Amino acid sequence: MEIIEEVSSYGALPLLSLNHVSILVKSVWTSVRFYEDVLGFFSIKRPSSFNFHGAWLFNYGIGIHLLENLSLDEYNTMNEPRPINPKDNHISFQCTDVELVKRRLDELGMKYVTAVVKEGGIEVDQVFFHDPDGYMIEICNCDNLPVLPISSSCCLKPKYDIGNCKKVEANKCGLMESVMLESLNKDMMNFSF
Question: How far is 2 from 10, CA to CA, in rounded Å?
Fold first, then answer.
């Protein structure tokens, strides 16, 4: 498998995608249940050479690595749960149906906050809530909002199709601009007026 790419003049690293997010948790068992039952991740094998308790989960093309740290309470000076604040650090997941997400969270008795982002006639619905350790989770339909570079000298990389092992050849920004315009055109065709 060969990937042909041009590195920008800034010397950016040759990245393909986000692989995983590691999270310190008080209880691996409690957090595994949350990430499996609420967010739809599934447990995967982690290296047996690790000498600390944890779990690896995977779905949606991303891994969540849970690292147990029983002394988390020592670092947390707040004994009360943090407020759900959309402007706090968070992990965001794209969903197909925000209303279904809210109904499911209601069924689970979970507190959440909603927000709507409006831009040029496009609306993005967001739902924010905490995992068992107080980490913020966002569920949204963020792909309603097109990714438009600020600079005309962009060099965004398209998603790499691992299944077909296609070469991704970037000719400066021409390929990416074409991919983005094609994607935006398809998105615009899906709008109903």
Answer: 23
Distance CA 133, CA 31 (A): 8
pLDDT of residue 148: 75
Q: Which amino acid would we find at residue 106?
A: D
**Final residue in a domain of this structure, among 106, 128, 145:** 145
Distance CA 180, CA 170 (A): 13
DSSP 3-state assignment of 15? coil
CB neighbours of 110 closer than 8 A, spacing ≥ 6?
A: 38, 129
pTM above 0.85, yes or no: no
Range of the domain at 31: 17-77
Query: How far is Cα 2 from Cα 166, in angstroms, rounded to an integer?
Result: 8
Residue 6 one-letter amino acid: E
My answer on whether 156 and 141 are in the same domain is: no
Residues annotated as catalytic are 138
